[in-house]
Design a protein that fits this description.
By secondary structure, this protein is an alpha+beta fold. It has two domains: 82 residues, Penicillin-binding protein 2a (Domain 2) (Alpha-Beta Complex), CATH 3.90.1310.10; 338 residues, 3-Layer(aba) Sandwich (Beta-lactamase), CATH 3.40.710.10. It contains 20 helices and 20 strands. Strands 1, 2, 3, 4, 7, 15 and 16 form a seven-stranded mixed sheet that branches. Strands 9-8-20-19-18 form a five-stranded antiparallel sheet, with helices on both faces. A two-stranded antiparallel ribbon has the order 5-6. Helix 1 packs across helix 9. The longest helix has 34 residues. The radius of gyration is 32 Å and the shape is elongated. 44% of the residues are buried. It is found in: Membrane. This is Peptidoglycan glycosyltransferase. Keywords: Membrane, Transferase, Transmembrane, Transmembrane helix.
Length: 570
Amino acid sequence: MKSNSRHSARVKILFLAILLFAGVLIGRLYFLQIVEGAIYRAEAEAQYLGGQRADFNRGTIYFENKDGTLVSAATMKSGYNLAIHPNLIANASTTFEKINAILPIAQDNFFIKAGKSSNWEEIKKYLNPETGENLLMLKIPGVEIVPANWRFYPAGKLAANVLGLVGYQGDTLAGRYGLESYYEDVLKRDESGLYRNIFAEIFSGLEKTIVKKTSLEGDIITTIEPTVENFLEKKLAALNEKWQSAEAGGIIINPKSGEIYAMANLPTFDPNNFSAESDVNIFSNPLVENAYEMGSIIKPLTVAAGLDAGVITATTTYNDTGFIELNGRKISNFDKKARGIVDTQEVLNQSLNTGATFIMRKLGQKTFSQYFWNFGIGEETGIDLPNESPGLAENLKSSRDLEHATASFGQGIALTPIMTARALSILANGGFLITPHLVKKIEYTAGFSKNISGGNDKRVIKKETSEEITRMLVEVVDKALLNGQIKQEHFSVAAKTGTAQIANPAGGGYFEDQFLHSFFGYFPAYEAKFLVFLYLYKPVGVNYASQTLTQPFIDIAKFLLNYYNIPPDR
């Protein structure tokens, strides 16, 4: 009897244990399905829809106004996505009418998708909360209104190629192109804590799951000033419309700190609607990824090298016969005309190829090439954008004078625009090689921040050289460029134009009727706060950069001097 009694007691204890376990299990399932059910439904719905999940999150990218206030450049937006279950729609016409009364949609597209035999068809993404909630209230059979978060760019196309976009890499949403890609480790948010193993949850009895990795997560504050960026983009758009160029681009940089106030190129795209673009190349940034033969804006670097090495002065003369023969090839001035005895200042004033060649030969191949390498030519600048090109500077390693001669006036070597702006900043900042950058500060979610600087990395020419080449370039503006018509009475401006022939990749040599126009200038010249670089690729119906880029440059210079209230320097 005692044995039976003990057996009965054990059965009762086991039964109570099972009841208790079942109670815990049911309670836990209730908590997961009802209390936290929205999390799992959002995940499932997002998998069906293929859109950006309701739990998707990402750090913010900011522009910064000149007064230090922040402006959102890339942020998150919440709303809904609209989809249908075609197999659950009894009457497509009625369903369409109900949806269309609240949200106008394309009729043909709807009926095509409603007629399919699939379980799920996306109709429209990124509905605002009010529209989504109004549709939810209708409870239309076969219609799904799914909560979603997505990346949003409040300024539309502004600085699109700088910002980049967010898209899928496999099954994961991530930064693609631009700052979104370069700072992916900072901007991404680890949402792994939202995706829990249900059975682990049930049996663990713990609320805490995976600890999120937050040490690198944060927001980024860029150097881009939105008003300046907008002004530059409008100037480029006007240039493109007037000259029908294949590309147009510009950079406005602080030549001392390396901070980039504006960086723009055309053609560009709308990051809020990038799926409409058929050519993925439009998402790249030619200012850092493409290399061009820049032409005569390289001559000031050649002159600076000659001044710094002590082989010439501004008054050193040579006999310009209009051309020079080197290694069986003829190098001519742009107009093929001789000037006779001229000095170094005229090499810049009249943009003489023979003069640049003369200086290169005075330096010698080895010294000339070393100066150009010191200027950062042929290497990446270190700018915080992906896919930067080091350009093409192999001709600087040649044993022949010919390749060094063409390099001295900007042909035969190819530079990215940002590499060019960096090299030319040396002339403006007292002789230092800087690191251009687009982000000035990272604000980490962990509560600390990091300031980013790119100024005065390495001296490459003497301060006196910088001052002398600046004086010479100011004379170019005051006396030579458009015969002095753009001289600024109260501000010193140093500048130079460049017109380069475009290489023919098929037959070798250069096209006779295709050019790259470039222009750079800095101001106030002797205490430069801005350096502006502009280029046009294959403008139509015009030969020289002085005709296309001089006035836009002056317009930008006047705007910046006024906008930042820069005091006159003369």
